[in-house]
Design a protein that fits this description.
The protein has 91 residues and is an all-alpha fold. Helices cover 57% and strands 0% of the residues.
């Protein structure tokens, strides 16, 4: 659905629990819909949380979105609240 995002290690960790819950205790008549329902819920999850931007390489160095911007924000928070850890990571 987004050409900027390719396979990313770890996305299965978000998708697997959704699939497990969908598959558990489902009526046999709806069993064929589990995979598509899981996909829909997964896509909604990563869209709502803006996780998609973290996996789009074209946004890595964007100032406001993408992985680079998020890392800058988290490093700033880390420096403010846990400066010794921040210094260690910078080194």
């Amino acid at each position: 659905l987004n050409v900027g995002i390719r396979y990313v290690q770890g996305l299965n960790e978000l998708c697997a629990p959704i699939y497990f819950v969908m598959k558990s205790g489902i009526d046999k008549e709806f069993e064929d819909c589990v995979e598509s329902d899981t996909f829909f819920c997964f896509m909604h999850l990563i869209s709502e949380l803006s996780l998609r931007d973290h996996f789009d390489k074209t946004l890595d160095n964007h100032n406001q979105t993408g992985l680079g911007a998020s890392l800058k924000k988290y490093f700033s928070l880390l420096k403010r609240h846990y400066e010794p850890i921040w210094e260690s990571l910078v080194k």
